[in-house]
Amino acid sequence: MAGKFEKTLSPSDVSQKLAVPTEFIGDQYGGGEHLVVMDCRRNMYEFVLSTRRQGPYRKPVFTRDWLKYSKDQQLQAGQTIYFWKNDNEEFYRIQVLRDLLGAGPK
Question: Among the entry's GO cellular component annotations, what is one (predicted)?
């Protein structure tokens, strides 16, 4: 996988599942991967990255703990998240950009 992405959230991202940019998964992705994710408060989540099994477009999405994260953070459509993995860590990180910039409601 490419390792990082930034995304402005849509209403369905917040209430159902997060549509992941296709570039994030690369060409070698097989599907159903479990990703351990830590937020800025050091809470741990397990996202499942899956794609469509049929059709020309893979449409990757995060499921499982994604909705828990969305509710815990009180995410809203229009907010932007940043998702990445540091080379020396076994887990991914996620942060709402308002947290990085110190602006917006918490």
Answer: nucleus
